[in-house]
Design brief:
The chain is an alpha+beta fold and 159 residues long. Strands 1, 2, 3, 4, 5, 6, 7, 8, 9 and 10 form a ten-stranded antiparallel sheet that branches. It is globular, with a radius of gyration of 18 Å. 18% of the residues are buried.
């Protein structure tokens, strides 16, 4: 399988925007990875996430606010020869981001961030009640490091 680095910023952003879910890697108490799937929004070099206002993930982030976030798009089974198992691959593109989580606490900023999610998933904006805004934790992750790759781009489509 051939792997190619993607360096074009617009292509990287397109990969991120094509995804419905990202995977957020947090450092667990014993130092091992703790990975959770999350909905997300993306704006100008920042990943916006939201969660319950309490839980294990928030306890862990208090200790280690650095996270690794991955995205994967365009997954298609590919092969070089249909009768050779090791020639099969997945044609896909991925983005890996690292950054430090901070939380949006100001209610009007939370509302703007929540509407980024709603625009992404529904194409609409909404009004939020004060209890709804107070009972959601909104994460902001400015991207400090980013890499992107394309896998299996030279293979034939499974037919």
């Amino acid at each position: 399988m051939r792997t190619f680095f993607i360096t074009d910023q617009q292509e990287i952003e397109n990969i991120i925007q094509q995804c419905d879910v990202c995977f957020v890697g947090i450092t667990d108490e014993d130092g091992s990875p703790y990975v959770i799937p999350m909905n997300f929004a993306y704006r100008k070099g920042e990943i916006i996430l939201h969660s319950a206002p309490e839980g294990k993930h928030l306890r862990l982030l208090q200790q280690h606010p650095m996270v690794c976030i991955t995205f994967c798009s365009e997954r298609k089974l590919m092969y070089q020869h249909p009768d050779v198992a090791c020639s099969y691959s997945m044609n896909s593109k991925s983005v890996l981001c690292k950054g430090e989580v901070s939380f949006i606490e100001e209610l009007s900023e939370k509302e703007k961030a929540m509407n980024l999610f709603m625009i992404k998933y529904t194409g609409r904006t909404f009004k939020y009640s004060l209890p709804a805004l107070r009972n959601v934790k909104v994460w902001k992750v400015p991207i400090q490091e980013i890499t992107a790759k394309a896998f299996g781009q030279n293979f034939k489509n499974k037919g």
